[in-house]
Each structure stands twice: as C-alpha cells, then as structure tokens.
Design goal:
Structural class: mainly alpha
Number of strands: 7
Strand order of the largest sheet: 3-4-5-7-6
Oligomer: single chain
Strand content: 5-15%
Shape: globular
Helix content: 40-55%
Bound molecules: zinc ion
Number of helices: 26
Distance between the termini: 66 Å
Largest sheet: 5 strands, mixed
Radius of gyration: 25 Å
Length: 673
C-alpha cells in the first residue's frame, strides 16, 4: 500500500502528481481507500456530539476526502486523455462507486440535519460573504441531491443514480469504440485526392497501426462533419465518410439515450421538477427552461435564413443543389473566392510553438502580467505532455500549466481543460491545470502546423486554464472553473478574441520557413472572413442544442419511442430539419450530454457567448490589449471562481446586465429573415 504514489500528498512543486511513478494498478486501491476514508470522515462529522458549527461541519467537509480528490483528478484526466483499455475497465468499475459515494454523503440524514440547522440561522452566524455563500451552496446541493426526500424517495434516488452512472459510462465507451470501428477504410490512393501529403501519410500510418496494408484510414472525430469533407475531391468518398460519421453507434447508443432520458426524467420528478432540464437550469444562470427556450426561439429563424442564403450561394458555385457531404467542400471554395483565403496555405504561418509562445502566452502576459517557463524537469502523464510554470507579475509562482497537444487513439475527441490540483487557500494549494487538444502529431523533426480553427482553440482552452490559474478563493468548493456550466465557457470564449487581435496576430503569425510576417492584406481578409459560414455553424450547433433540449425536457413517464424518429421529430418541430446541415452531434454520439456533464446544458455555449460578445465589446472599447483591462477582468471574474454569484459579478464588471446585440451582430443574425 505504501508504495502506491497516489496514497500520499505529492512532494513535487505545486503538488504535481508524480506521474512517473503512477501505474494503472494504483488507481483502484487508491479509489477504494479514498472512498472509505472520506466516508469515515463524513460519519465523524455527521455524528459529532458537539452542536453544528460552520467550522465543524462545512469546513470539515471541505477538508475531507483529500485522497479521493487526488486520485479522482489524476484518473479523470487519464480517462479522457489517455484511456487505455485498462483505464476504461477501471472507469466502468469506479463510476458507479463514485455515484453511490456521492449519494452516501448527500443522503445522510444526520449530516443534512446539521447543514439545515446552520442554513436556517445563517444570518446569525457572522459569516463572511464567501462563507455565507458556501453554506447556501451546500444546502442547495444537498436538497438537489435528494437530502430532503423521504426514506423511500432516497432509496429510489440511489437506484436511479446508479443506473444513470452505469448507462452514461457505457454510452461514452460505445461512442469511442464506434468512432474507431466506423473509421472509413479506403483502398485506392486516388480516393484521397485533395488531402494534403501530411494527411495522406497519417491515413496510411493509421491503416498500418490497424494491421492493414495498402489501405488508408480516415478516423472519425467526435462531431458529425469530418474535417476532410472540405478537401476530398471524390464526391462518393465524401458521401461515405459523412454517412459513416452520422450512422455510428446508432444500435448501441440509441437505446441507451432513451434509457438515460427516461431515468433522468424520473429522477427530476422525484426531486419535484417537471423535467431533467428544469432540474438542471434551476441551478444555472439561465434559471428556467423558458429562458433557454426563448433564446433558442430568437436565434433559430435568423440562423436558418442565414444558412439558406449560404446554401443558395453554394448551389450557384457548384452548379446544382448541395448535399450535406458537399457543403464543406463548396463552402471552402466559396470562402477562397470571396475572401481569398486558403486555409491550407495559411498553415505555415501557424506553427504550434510560435502560436503558443508569441500568441497565447504573450497575449496573457500583456493582459495580466504573467510569464510562463517550460519545466522539462517535471514530467506529465504522457511523453507528449509539456509542463510550464506560471509566474505572476510580481514573480511569485501561480501554478503549473500542462499542455497535451497531440491526438492519439486513447484520447477522446475535441479539446478541453482539466484541473489536476484545485487552488484553495484553506488547503494551501496552488492550481495545476492541463489543456488537451487533438492536433495531428507531425512526423519526427517536422513542425506542427495548425489551421486557424486550431489556433482559436488554443486561445479558447487557455482561457479555461487562466480561469483555473487565477483562482483566488478560500474554499475548494469554489475553485477556478467551479461555476455554473452555462457560465464556464464565458472566460474561454472571451480569450479567443486575441487570436485575431492585430498586435497579437502580427507577432505569432510568421512563416515557419522564412520567418516573414503574414501579409497585412491576408490578416485583414481573415478578419473579414470571420462571419463567413456562420449560418451553417449556428444551425448545426442549434440543432444539437435542440436535441439535447428535446431529450431532457421530457416529463417523467413519457415514452420517446424510436430514438431516430424522436430525433427527426425534434429537429422538425424546431424548424431545424435542414437535410444539408446535420446536427453537430447526433443523439448516438452526443457524449457531452449522454456521458459528460452537459445534459440539458449544450445551450450553454451560446448562452455564455452572449456574455462573451458583450465583454469583447468592452475590451475593444477600452483600448484592447491593456494590462489595466486585463486586471479588471481578472479581479472581477477570473479570480472569483464560484465564490460570487456569476451574473452579479458580470453586472458589476460591465456596469449593467448583459446585452444580446453584440452576439447577434457577430453571428450575422441581424439581417432580415
Ligand atoms: Zn470550452
């Protein structure tokens, strides 16, 4: 036991987990001990003969479960970024254990009795603002977890939670294996025409890895519209690729989606809500399902009108109607024609390391005064992971930033941020965060050249990282990105604005071979092109949002019937059944909402974008990349984590509640429908 490195606090800088020593067999025993340890601590708190105080109840809970938190953070990252077969097996075992554990805490009547007693006389306890909010949050969290239910109700809730946890784990694993199995295998090099030499080499490598000779494999990414659709010349190959993407996991995950939606509806009813969505948004900044439905209703008609205008323009260029698998291909040509931008020709200006250091890091340096230094002496959880130490303006250490850029078969799709150590003054911890990406790894010695979309993603994910790194709260409950999920994308979306900011772009966008700056007119055209294709992008996003919403506004006892038919009906009802614009995710691989934490929450991206676009306007009005503006934003929002009410913090920062107009303007949704 003592040789298990997860069992003790790390002695590395910033308590970076000792990855070099951690092996797969360490996880399960650490989980088992961590769960038992926290349960014993919780029993101690609940059974304390002394009357409840903030210190002996709430703070004691905040201090409990150190081992479990440690293993959960390390394992949670592994399960998303390096999910080997062994890790997946452990995940399937551990997820139901964690769900049961959470229930054991939240459904402990003696513990809830203490929290309720404190909550009822909260104004008389002399608590500071963060402490008062923490007590209120604990009370809300326990009530929402079922603590106020009868014994029978609590029992049924436990069963439902266990079933939901098992089904959502299975959903995620099915999605991952379906993406692997449904990869498109090509047997003639002519079929790859249009792809870059790098992409063809990667397709050949992928085939070899699967033991196939004279074959090329196009693996599926997690979303519907595969990136190669913009390049592939062979129309039939495009059709096959999109069909493979859209039809994956139907058999395995369709029934699981039905089961999950049904179970969640029953759970919501048990807790006193009309639907799972109603339950979710009651604790988000949106507040009610009506608020989300209203926002969608406002956005759908102009977005669809926009997409139809785009379809007409594409049909004109293509000389006939454009099918879903043709859209990206012709859209790419139209973009070139209208804005004279060739995505592929731009890539030499976006070399990963240059973008990182002279773009992402330097923009943050000018805004917030921070510097980052690579620490090759510290190791990550995979040889590709790089570790940076982050210093504040006064030279003090803020935390560690880990960067895991490259795709690999064990990594899930997309890009995201994880916290490995949560900042907390109570526990004396500084943050350790990681950004994950899925950039194709270049051949040894070759530079990694990005698309502009990937550049934007680097800035986006670093925005999440800053939210974690700047966290300055006392209680771990509120640390960093522990804000409502319809608020959490806001800081990261704001950080995207610097990717195209003239002073920033000029420094990082230099040619990888010649060092020449990107021509000024190219940069200007890129800025003009930002709104190109927004009709398609908004519709495919809204279609996925509507699916999430339809599944999760079902009342208890409703039978959704056949999942594919349910999906089609939901899109039709919303006016989003455009055959040429499939949803960004179909139900069967919509892992965000069926196996992640975004159920009834996919609307959050556009909800946050309202705040984002309004804040971009604020930065722009205040002189752009200025330290004073950065410090204001950091103080008001980035450093506060969940310790203040998010919309109150926003209004205090902006001087008024958010306005939707900047978003409508940005997405080209102000034209008549
Ligand atoms: Zn994000």
């Amino acid at each position: 036991m003592t040789t298990n490195p997860l069992m003790r606090a790390s002695t590395l800088p910033y308590e970076l987990p000792p990855f070099a020593e951690i092996r797969e067999e360490h996880y399960l025993p650490a989980f088992e001990l961590g769960l038992a340890e926290q349960l014993a601590q919780v029993e101690g708190i609940a059974g304390d003969p002394a009357p409840a105080t903030f210190e002996n109840t709430v703070v004691a809970l905040e201090r409990s479960g150190a081992l479990l938190e440690r293993v959960r953070a390390v394992f949670g990252n592994a399960a998303s970024a390096d999910a080997t077969a062994g890790v997946r097996e452990i995940e399937a075992k551990v997820n139901p254990m964690l769900a049961a554990h959470s229930d054991a805490i939240h459904l402990n009547p003696a513990l809830f009795g203490r929290i309720r007693a404190l909550y009822e006389r909260r104004e008389a306890l002399g608590l500071g603002p963060e402490e008062l909010r923490l007590l209120e949050r604990y009370h809300t969290r326990f009530v929402r977890a079922g603590a106020a239910l009868s014994e029978d109700g609590r029992w049924r809730l436990r069963e439902l939670n266990a079933e939901i946890a098992a089904a959502s784990t299975a959903f995620g694993q099915n999605a991952l294996s379906a993406a692997e199995e449904s990869a498109l295998v090509l047997d003639d090099p002519a079929q790859l025409a249009g792809l870059s030499a790098d992409a063809i080499a990667a397709a050949a490598r992928d085939a070899r890895d699967r033991g196939l000779t004279d074959r090329w494999v196009l693996p599926l990414r997690n979303f519907s519209n595969q990136l190669e659709l913009a390049r592939l010349e062979d129309r039939d190959v495009r059709r096959r690729l999109l069909t493979a993407s859209l039809s994956r996991a139907q058999d395995t995950n369709g029934p699981l989606a039905v089961a999950l939606a049904t179970l969640r509806a029953e759970r919501a009813a048990l807790l006193g809500y009309d639907s799972h969505a109603a339950y979710v948004v009651a604790d988000r900044t949106a507040g009610s399902t009506q608020a989300v439905t209203d926002l969608l209703a406002r956005l759908v008609p102009p977005a669809v009108a926009n997409a139809r205008r785009e379809a007409d323009a594409l049909a004109e260029l293509a000389g006939g109607p454009v099918e879903a698998w043709d859209w990206a291909y012709w859209s790419d040509k139209l973009r070139k024609q209208r804005h004279d931008i060739d995505e592929a020709a731009l890539r030499p200006y976006f070399e990963l390391d240059k973008v990182l250091r002279d773009g992402v890091f330097r923009a943050a340096g000018e805004l917030y005064g921070i510097t980052l230094t690579e620490r090759p002496d510290l190791s990550g959880y995979h040889p590709d992971v790089r570790v940076f130490e982050v210093f504040d303006a006064d030279g003090s250490g803020l935390g560690l930033f880990l960067a895991d850029f490259f795709a690999r078969p064990t990594k899930r799709g997309g890009a995201w941020m994880n916290a490995l150590v949560d900042q907390s003054r109570l526990l004396g911890r500084r943050p350790v965060v990681v950004n994950n990406h899925n950039i194709a790894k270049p051949a040894p010695g070759e530079p990694a050249l990005l698309t502009f979309w990937q550049v934007g993603t680097l800035f986006h994910e670093f925005g999440h990282a800053l939210h974690g790194l700047f966290s300055d709260v006392r209680h771990p409950y509120f640390s960093g990105t522990a804000v409502p999920s319809d608020f959490v994308e806001y800081p990261s979306q704001v950080n995207e604005m610097w990717a195209l900011w003239p002073d920033v772009l000029a420094r990082y966008a230099t040619h990888v071979e010649t060092g020449a700056p990107m021509p000024a007119d190219t940069a200007a055209r890129m800025r003009e092109a930002v709104r190109f294709g927004q009709g398609f992008a908004t519709v495919e996003y809204l279609a996925a949002t509507v699916l999430d919403w339809a599944w999760h506004t079902l009342p208890a006892g409703a039978d959704p019937g056949d999942p594919a038919a349910f999906e089609a009906a939901a899109l039709h009802a919303a006016g989003l059944d455009l055959p040429a614009v499939p949803p960004r995710y179909r139900t069967a691989y919509f892992t965000h909402v069926f196996s992640g934490h975004y159920s009834a929450g996919y609307y959050s991206y556009i909800w946050s974008e309202v705040l984002d676009a309004d804040t971009v306007q604020w930065f722009t009005e205040n002189g752009g990349l200025r330290r004073a503006s950065g410090d204001t934003f950091r103080r008001a929002l980035l450093s506060r984590g969940g310790s203040v009410d998010p919309m109150t913090a926003f209004a205090a920062f902006r001087g008024r509640p958010p306005r939707i107009e900047p978003l409508l303007e940005r997405r080209g949704l102000t034209q008549p429908t």
